[in-house]
Amino acid sequence: MSGMPLKRSNALQEVRYEIRGQLANHALELEKRGYEIISLNIGNPGLFGFRTPETMRLAMIENLGQAEPYCHQKGIFPAREAVVMQQQLRGVRGVTADEVFIGNGVSELIDLSLRALLNPGDEVLVPSPDYPLWSAAVTLNGGTAIHYRCASDDSFRPDTGQLESLINSRTKAIVVINPNNPSGAVYDRASLDQIVKLATAHGLVVMADEIYDQMVYDDAEFIPLATLATDTVCLTFSGLSKIYRACGYRVGWAVFSGDLDRATDYIHGMELLSALRLCSNVPGQWAVQTALGGFQSIQQLVTPGGRLYQSRLAVIDRVSASKHLHLEKPMGAMYAFLRLDERFEGKLDDQAFARDLLENYHVLVAPGSSFNTPYTDHFRITTLPDTDTIDVVFDRIDACLERYC
């Protein structure tokens, strides 16, 4: 018996995640044909030789016997308490383990937090450029993502004037990604203060995606948004994937702070959704206490001489030497958001460039429009490769672009 072809849900029509989309699938096809592809589309430290600290691996192994049953839907107590201690050390007050949710990475917690908050037609203010999971999760949970401008000519800082103009009776939350993916911007205190004032004045939830919180360079200062958002509801997201190079462990956390009295029913909603999925990955949770309480090896990687610092510097140097590219220097995270020179306008957009670079030069990058930008002249690479690989990549990029000149 045959029937009509099965169509995907209408809810997916406006959902995009091109970082692992058609270009990435095409790269896999090329690899099956025998080509060696340099994949720079995803910030996945383990693929570039970065190891999870040994103490975290040992903590997991030593507690495997306790990791076989389901745990509490919010996560194991030692992991949640370690997150509380980190928040307290950063100056966040009034948080207990009851306000901490452990999830299967920050990705799951973004989905749960939006599902617990949004009704059909609600709006969430999301930065442009953004990490596209945010826009997708808003859409999948019945909301509308409204993008506020973070312009390259202003160091990708939020345009708080435009942000304020977008707030209306349907607005429920403001998303802040700091340090930012994809731009590498680290927001200054004045910008964060202005966002918090707007959120407080309009009763909005502040959702602070801070997964790259300790990955800052030179004189950049990371300011936890929860230390400023004391009079409105704040949700802080972080995890083990990036700072601790443990993407595969799938451990993230979300912390409620600020006006907790107003958040009571919202928190109950998160508890319900967390219970419906029983619990998150238990073995990885046993690495959290060791990670947050132990030696912070990330500092050796992001200071001069450290591998992340030197790779970022190599990218900056190669862009400076190129007549085809421009870059607003990334001050945090593990990415560079590069712009094609004005000479390519009308000849080449980000999608065409990325496909040409993949097919003919075997380098996979993420087109800038994948990050919900209104412009099509940017692309993102991860700065995780070693400096020799970065030189190879930029030799190929320059060779690709030279053909269009």
What features would you describe in this structure?
- This protein is an alpha/beta fold and 405 residues long.
- It folds into two domains: 16-50 and 300-402, Aspartate Aminotransferase, domain 1 (Alpha-Beta Complex), CATH 3.90.1150; 56-293, Aspartate Aminotransferase, domain 2.
- The chain has helices spanning 22-32, 54-62, 77-89, 105-117, 132-140, 160-165, 189-202, 264-276, 282-285, 288-293, 298-302, 307-321, 350-361, 387-402; strands at 38-39, 100-103, 123-128, 144-149, 171-177, 205-209, 233-239, 252-258, 325-327, 335-340, 363-364, 366-367, 378-382.
User: How much is the radius of gyration in Å?
Assistant: 21 Å
H and E order = HEHHEHEHEHEHEEEHHHHHEEHEEEH
Q: Supply the helix-strand structural class.
A: alpha/beta
Percent strand: 15-25%
